[in-house]
Amino acid sequence: MRLAFITSNPGKVEEAKEYFEPLGIEVYQLSYSYPEIQADTLEEVAEYGARWLAEKISGPFFLDDSGLFIEALNGFPGVYSAYVYRTLGIGGILKLMEGFSDRSAYFKSIIAYWDGELHIFGGRVDGEITAEPRGEGGFGFDPIFRPRGSDKTFAEMTTEEKNLISHRGKALKVFASWLRENL
Ligand code: ITT
Q1: pTM for the complete prediction?
Q2: Among 9, 62, 64, 68, which residue has the most ligand 1 atoms within 8 Å of its CB, making it the best to mutate?
Q3: Model confidence over 53-71: pLDDT tens digits?
Q4: 2-182: CATH number
Q5: What's the average model confidence in pLDDT over 167-180?
Q6: Is ligand 1 within 6 A of the CB of residue 12?
Q7: Is the pLDDT of residue 168 over 90?
């Protein structure tokens, strides 16, 4: 079986692959741009996108909508993470954090899988925003996010290490075990 991962982000596809190979499922990237609505939750954004895509694409597919939620900023950038990453970038986030002693934050990932019906899977990881960027791996905000219990940022980890603890790794694990039981 081949399964389309609708995303513009090859880093997400890299992370997803290891969950599907053992199931004999080939995941491939399909860069089909879809509307990301302005909403209060990642779930709403993911659901709208998946239902919109379901009318354009035949066959099963999934997408992932993720965000970085910083406690001292009341959850910002959250659902606006992609926009903030493109405009302010990592440097902008570090600047916004100046003067805050509470640097706790979490990543959340919502996977929407469409197979004629909608299925939602989620994962979350808690950690903190580092004082400076560290590491070359991963993508997005990885160089400034250190998960709780680790002394490395996500960007200092291999994909396997990140997957074991990350928001997306957790969501993919639940998704893959659901597929194992339901395919
Ligand atoms: P698609 O929507 O096309 O899948 P995207 O990179 O825009 O790709 P999101 O909207 O889900 O993905 O992500 C929001 C932002 O959060 C974006 O700038 C990502 O780079 C960043 N992000 C998402 N997951 C991340 C992760 O695991 N590590 C670091 N940054 C992440």
Answers
A1: 0.97
A2: 9
A3: 999 999 999 999 999 999 9
A4: 3.90.950.10
A5: 97
A6: yes
A7: yes
pLDDT value at residue 183: 85
Per-residue model confidence (pLDDT) at position 22:
87
Q: Say if ligand 1 is within 6 A of residue 139 CB.
A: yes
User: Which active-site residues does the annotation give?
Assistant: 65
Nearest CA to ligand 1 atom 14: 82
Provide DSSP, the chain. -EEEEE-S-HHHHHHHHHHHGGGT-EEEEE---------SSHHHHHHHHHHHHHTT--S-EEEEEEEEEEGGGTT-BGGGHHHHHHHTHHHHHHHHTTT-S--EEEEEEEEEEESSSEEEEEEEEEEEE-SS---SSSSTTGGGEEETT-SS-GGGS-HHHHHHHSHHHHHHHHHHHHHHHH-
Domain range summary for the chain, segments of one domain joined by +:
2-182
